[in-house]
Amino acid sequence: MHPLKQNRPLRRIVLASAVTASGLVMLLALKPHTAPAIAVAPAPAASSSAGANSGTGSGGSTATGTKTVTGDTVQTRWGPVQVKITVKNGKITDVTAVQSPSDNPRDQEINSYALPQLKSEALAAQSASIDTVSGATYTSDGYRQSLQSALDSAGL
Predict the structure, then answer these.
(1) For strand 91-99 and strand 66-70, is the pairing parallel, antiparallel, or unpaired?
(2) DSSP 40
(3) Is 111 domain-assigned?
(4) Do 52 and 125 belong together in one domain?
(5) Is residue 13 part of a domain?
(6) Number of domains comprising the chain
(7) Per residue in 17-40, pLDDT tens?
(8) At a CB cut-off of 8 Å and minimum separation 6, what does 79 contact?
(9) CB-side exposure of 148: number of CA atoms within 13 Å?
(10) pLDDT for 108-153, tens place per residue?
């Protein structure tokens, strides 16, 4: 038998093993292309009234055009995200994360750098059209949705 034909079965086995291992790695690394279905807490009326109460509860601040509105709680893959905004004369002056994923040290680490970036982007953009923070995609999406609901409640 020819010497090259003897090596082919071994080459096929090695090639098949490499392809199988590569396919398995790719399958395990697969992430969904779309965000998972996000459940929004059914409390927009409570959020709106909380925002209206905090605006009027600060001693006639509605006369100066200042009000605080809390957005809807958005359930993300890693936990709830909710923001509160302060609006003065039609401009966002402050954005605070009321809730964010914090079940483990990794969540806390991610949010320690993501939330300040999201806040500064929201203040600069004066809208919910903000960029996603790399490494905090789900938190960024939840932040953006909660921010938009707060802006809608504030009438912006």
Answers:
(1) unpaired
(2) B
(3) yes
(4) yes
(5) yes
(6) 2
(7) 999 998 888 877 766 554 444 444
(8) 99, 100, 101, 102, 103, 107
(9) 11
(10) 888 888 889 998 888 888 888 888 888 888 888 889 999 899 888 8
- The helix-helix angle for 44-56 and 137-154 (nearest 10°) equals 60
User: Domain for residue 39, yes or no?
Assistant: no
Both 93 and 25 in one domain: the answer is no
Same domain, 24 and 93: no
CA dist., res. 151 & res. 16, Å (int): 55
For residue 122, tell me if it sits in a domain: yes
Amino acid at the residue 123 = L
Determine the Cα–Cα distance for residues 21 and 137; give it in Å rounded to an integer: 28
Question: Are 115 and 149 members of one domain?
Answer: yes
Question: Which sign does the torsion angle of CA 105, 106, 110, 115 carry?
Answer: negative
pTM across the whole model: 0.58
What are φ and ψ of residue 71, in 5° steps?
Answer: -80, 170
Give the domain range for residue 105.
44-154
Q: Spell out the residues 6+ positions from residue 128 whose beta carbon is closer than 8 angstroms to its own.
A: 122, 144, 145, 147, 148, 151
Nearby residues of 45 by Cβ (< 8 Å), 6 or more positions away: none
Whether residue 58 is found in the same domain as residue 108:
yes
Other Cβ atoms less than 10 A from the Cβ of 143: the count is 32
